[in-house]
User: Fold this.
Amino acid sequence: MKFSSFPARLAVLNLALAAAFPVLAQQSLKDVMVTATRVAQPLTDVVADVSLIDREAIERSGATGLADVLARVPGIEISRNGGIGGTTSVFLRGADTRFTAVYLDGVRIDSQSTGGAPWEAIPLAQIDRIEVLRGPAGAIYGSDAIAGVVQIFTRKGEGAFTPYLGLGLGSDRTAKLDAGFSGAQQGFDYSFGLTRETSKGFNAKAASNPDRDGYLNRSANARLGLQLSPEQRIEANLLDSWSDSRYDASNTTDDHNLHHLQSLGINWQSQWSEAYSTRIGFSEGKDRYETQPSPYLTDTQVRSYLWQNEYRIGGQLLTAALERREDRLNNASTTPVLTDRSQDALALGYGLRHQAHTLQLNLRHDEDSEFGGQDTGSASYAYAFAPNWRASVSAGNAFRAPTLFQRFSIYGDPSLRPETARNFELGLNYALQSTRFGIVLYRNQIDDLINYVSGPGSCINGSGKYPGCYGNTKRARLEGLTLSGARSLAGFNLSASLDLQNPRDLDSGKLLARRSRRHATLAADTRVARWQLGAELQLSGQRYDDKDNKTALGGYGLLNLHASTEVAPHVTLQARVDNLADKDYQLANGYYTPGRLFYLGLKWSPQ
Assistant:
């Protein structure tokens, strides 16, 4: 890969900060990761490339959208059509947004129409913790986890009854109100939350109505747990989010995106002996998307059943899981209108932690009701070769089944094959107290990429008004280097990440659309008297808006500032300025992005 056009000073600055994960994802040895193996385990036992984002970091960021928080994580960049509420893509290690599996409290979130999670519909206000796994995880999660996994957790009840109330105001007449409470007593824990957020927005599309394209979001969540006995626990979680975001499809119409996202999960956890435990789970995720006044409706339902077994012997962990996934799509352009399919899977895992060695092996077989079987596997090994130093190597494959829309719509092809990927990566990490440094080198090749092919052909819509169809016609290679670090120095918490990547179409040799070859984040925060002050700089190189690399989107740098202080007992004032220099930039051609933004919030939460 050639990155000579990237300013050398930026690379030197990132390396000089010498540490491991950005402030948003700082870790301690006591932290526990669930996503890496689908089993709760200390980070010291995790070989995979991961990041953790807690509630404190989310609130400190002042971000309004989930994607904006993720954009500050190593290996991730985003694209959005306009402002918050506009169609959003999250590119993990340069992969399309559909190649990242997304879970909300263990509930799979996906669209069988567009493919991938509806990022713009997931409410940030209800999120307590985010775990990011970079790298294929098909041997653990089955379909979709070609680039990695993002798992989102809502607040869990702990301790005494604790209410909270938040109010925020910002630019573009943005207003936010959230309230809730949580607690635990006599084996029962609970957490409830409500949020309402609205904004007048700004004119998002340059060539259409010069009106404001605002948004409205209402969301609620509940998470309950009951400890029946020291060995038996039942948990349930529910989230409901409804949003209305405006966009411009013409010069005269005030168009609306209506998004309704729901998730429901129920789990029964049992500890049958000191070594053996099980988890039985049922989950259902629903994604309903509608446009008005132009009539369009698509409704996805993903239902999953899981029986997971864990057996621990000293430093060894063996897992076996049976899982069933059922997808259903209601869309007027498919034949039939209501289409469905199922996948049944057996997954096996083995983990070992012995002295300086850590090993993780996984195998999985998925049997799809439409195209048959798919086998995936992964192997990861880490060696602590010196105090505070660890080297790792990982290899694995993954796949994504075609969406029901890609197979059965007027543009579909029922004979589509799954998209498949093979990944290899090397890692090196250093950690000592507040100083951390990490470097990961990866290469992920994706074959049988599903692409829309225009023009007459043998597909269902070969002679239609817009002739063309989906086909397994492309290959891509995603390769890159990620540097990340954090260090405390002279009262400042410093952090940085730098991604040098080369996401290319192997057939045309062109860069994949809307992905830069380099992007970085620099951050610093400190405490001055009663104030917590911080700044961050987000940098991105040039990208192309199209697959032919003819429409360039210029590089940009965004400087954001944030501050917080306690103004009264249990009352915190939060302030933020985004895009301080009022930078004019684009994430998608033809769509504006917000200029300088101000936000001021108050939160009351007695401890």
Summary: Confidence is low (pLDDT under 50) at residues 1-30. The chain is about 5% helix and 60% strand. The CA atoms of residues 144 and 400 lie 4 Å apart.
